[in-house]
Amino acid sequence: MINPETDRVLITGAAGAIGTALRAGLRGTWRHLRLTDVRPVADLANNEEAVIADIADRAALDGMMRDVRAVVHLAGMIGHYTLEDLFRVNARGLFDVFESARLAGVERIIFASSNHAFGCYPITETVSPALPPRPDSLYGVFKVWGEVMLQNYYDRHAIRSVSLRIGTYRSKPIDQRSLATWLSPRDVVHLVDVSLRHPDPGCLIVNGYSNNTRLKTRDPNWATLGYQPRDDAENFRDVLRVRGVDVDGPDREEWEWPEHGGSHARAPEHPPR
Ligand SMILES: NC(=O)c1ccc[n+]([C@@H]2O[C@H](COP(=O)([O-])OP(=O)(O)OC[C@H]3O[C@@H](n4cnc5c(N)ncnc54)[C@H](O)[C@@H]3O)[C@@H](O)[C@H]2O)c1
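A: This is the predicted complex of the input protein with nicotinamide-adenine-dinucleotide.
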């Protein structure tokens, strides 16, 4: 177990959307937070310190790992990026974060993976993390690579980890697919909190979703971890309907996108190869 009172936790990508939610939700109970991002991290609380650096800067990474017991690795390219960005940040940067953590004696890594790690499964199929990955994009391929790296770190170096296959992280659901894949700010905070506190998660992969009525996943690892999400995208059904979203299709198992990965699984490969 990582102790919220005494242990230092490093959050990479702390200036981003999920990092900002985690800071707000964790800083009341986690006494020693070190935050890093290539962008400025705003409004530091007394128990937060920030290191502004690119994760491509290995010397900076090695410095910020000092006295750190757990790393929450969020930094990464998401949305618009080139192939070079993807290799530099989501592959090499990820390697350097994990390797720097290992050499510094970090005991636990929480990794922001993605549901694009299994995005090619048909949405009509209820899937679990026990199934083989079926990434829907290069972005998803690199997330799987991060998960596999952590299996190696567990088997060879006994570093405990939880890879979070995050669905659609937003303050509210945004489209039909997110009726199944939404992860709320409150639930992501809870998910990271239990991932840090668990006495021994081994090397675990969990789906990062809220308690959505229309979940198309089944995840026994939620119980293993003690993750009990409280939010449900279904409560936003009327709001989505007013915005023109076909919220009734899923009642008939008719989804706009036939795969778990949504548009990622059908759109032209991005970045182009
Ligand atoms: N938001 C989602 O729905 C979602 C879904 C699945 C997975 N994820 C994963 O969760 C993580 C966080 O996502 P987010 O929504 O907060 O994204 P975000 O873009 O808001 O945050 C990512 C942060 O990483 C930082 N970053 C990027 N390149 C960097 C570099 N070279 N060095 C240091 N920092 C760098 C950015 O400045 C940014 O603050 C990402 O790894 C993403 O792939 C997010």
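The domain at 8-265 is CATH 3.40.50.720 (Rossmann fold). The chain has one domain: 8-265.
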